[in-house]
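Next comes a concrete protein, fold included:
___
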Amino acid sequence: IPRHVHMGEEMTLVLQGGYQDQHGHYLPGDIEERNGDESHAIKVDTDGECIALIFTQGRLKFDNWKPRLIQPFLGI
């Protein structure tokens, strides 16, 4: 997921696989919490898919114009 900021709180629970961002590496059972002013980019581990539940308050604000262009079609 390209670099973005949340317009509110975000909570992620990893169910399968894993991912990392500049704040850490997250594996099954890990919970990550972010407040609305932290920017991050997510990279899924290369050894498989990552399944996670993500709860957000508000929309995402992408740093790059390309994701912002398709954002209305994705509803995120």
